Amino acid sequence: MSESRSTEALKLALAWLFVLIPAAWGVAQVIVKSAALFAR
Amino acid sequence: MSLLSFLDRDHSVAPAGYSRWRVPPAALAIHLSIGQAYAFSVFNLPLSTLIGIDHAAPDDWKLTTIGWIFSVAIVFLGLSAFTFGRWLEAAGPRKAMFASACCFAGGFLVGAVGVQLHAIALVYLGYGVLGGIGLGLGYIAPVSTLIKWFPDRPGMATGLAIMGFGGGAMIGSPLAVALMAHFKSATSMGVVETFVAMGALYFAFMMFGVFTVRLPAPGWTPPGPAAASVKPTARDVHVDRALSTPQFWLLWAVLCLNVTAGIGVLGQASPMIQEMFPGRIGAGAAAGFVGLLSLANMGGRFLWSSLSDFLGRKRTYAVYFALGAALYAAVPTAGRLGSVALFVAFYVVIMSMYGGGFATIPAYLRDLFGVMHVGAIHGRLLTAWSVAGVAGPVLVNYLREYQIGRGVPKTGAYAMTMYIMAGLLVIGFVANARVRPVDPAHHWRGTDV
């Protein structure tokens, strides 16, 4: 039972990583571009 | 098990021990992909110089011709959400998400053939029609599933997915730029190869969602303390019956007015800030402003929608409309004061509520019409988006040209537009205030319609 729980937790963590990594990359691109608004 | 039966609704039911928190990443895999549509404009200039390469040749497509690709896709998003919403409820999310992945990726591939042959009709048919159908299916399928998994936090759950749609452009835009730079040569803009690569990449990414998504077993309830905070839902209303209720059309007006006010300004954001602050804001800073608005649009989808679980849907929309109208009316004052920071702050809040309006609507529908056909009803409500997608930009552009044609200075022309947007939001406030629970006569009894 505990093994299936840990497998489920691993699947959950991998699923979030799978979508959050490209999302974070995209957000970082926009933040870098937005910095120009306040640059002097 | 064959692939087709694997996609069946019956085979999508979650086994014991399945964590419902695996459904939001599945939904995000779809929405982050189809949200690429908002970044299609990065292809506009390369598509306009396919023959001339470093300049537009006489036979190259005009920008006005290319602009229709995105418009056709958005129209077919609305049409497919309208048409296939009911099928989605019967077929289950896995089959609908698989169909979405095939259509969206297939749209890129057919579009690539169209670009290779320089046949614009094939690009309209590929990215516009086929891709647009993929957009519609992919938009509503995850939302309907999340509502079933998160009866305690429907606003938060759907906000998370719809935030992905807003964020899709943030991945799609730099990805397309990087791929085109990689594939570009002395004789090619690299668009064909980029379309093929993006079709393959997005198909793989969306298939992750197809394999991960599950439906809750009948009678399933959230685990632990979450079960106690499940909000009582309305009795179910059949999708065909929902359209005959005043609540559906009031919410249609609410969505249409909220989107009309936001979408027109989004398209004008870059020239607007440069003309409001001449000499102070250049093209680079204006691009930064547009990026900041995209972030606000994306973040607002999650934050406002999550807040609606505590505030209530009707109150949340009342805030969107009242605060939105006040801020639109205050924007010209920020311009007159010469305060860039105030101007940016006002627009960040406005755009967060524009995104919030999209994300909160599925939970509002669930509150009024129950969960049985919420995906199908949501699909039909999205026609409001298609109408606003055309009306918003036309209204803003027409008003601006009309004012400038009458000799009004550019900054003054924007001020008039802002006051009219504020007026639209006041009408939205009234429509939202008139929303009441659905008459029990419309409740589904299992045999009617």
- In quaternary terms, these chains amount to heterodimer
Spans of chain A of at least 5 consecutive residues whose pLDDT stays below 50 are none
Name the shape of chain B in a single word: globular
Largest sheet of chain A: none
Poorly predicted runs of chain B are: none
Give Rg of chain A in angstroms: 17 Å
Q: What share of the residues of chain A does DSSP label as strand, in percent?
A: under 5%
Average pLDDT across residues of chain A? 84
Q: What distance separates the N and C termini of chain A?
A: 59 Å
- How many E-type strands of chain B? 0
Helix content of chain B: over 70%
Identify the biggest protein-protein contact and residues per side.
Answer: A-B, 25 and 32 residues
Compact overview of the structure:
The complex is a heterodimer of chains A (about 40) and B (about 450). Chain A is mainly α and about 40 residues long.
Written overview of the protein:
The complex is a heterodimer of chains A (40) and B (449). With 40 residues, chain A is mostly helical. Chain A has one helix at residues 2-38. The termini of chain A are far apart. Chain B is built from 16 helices and no strands. Chain B is globular and about 60 Å long. Chain B starts with a helix and ends in a 16-residue tail after the last helix. The mean pLDDT of chain B is 90. The chains are: A mainly alpha (40), B mainly alpha (449). The A-B interface holds A 4-5, 8-9, 11-12, 15-16, 18-19, 22-23, 25-27, 29-31, 33-39 and B 17-19, 21-22, 25-26, 28-29, 32, 164, 167, 170-171, 173-174, 205, 208, 212, 281, 284-289, 291-292, 294-295, 298, 344.
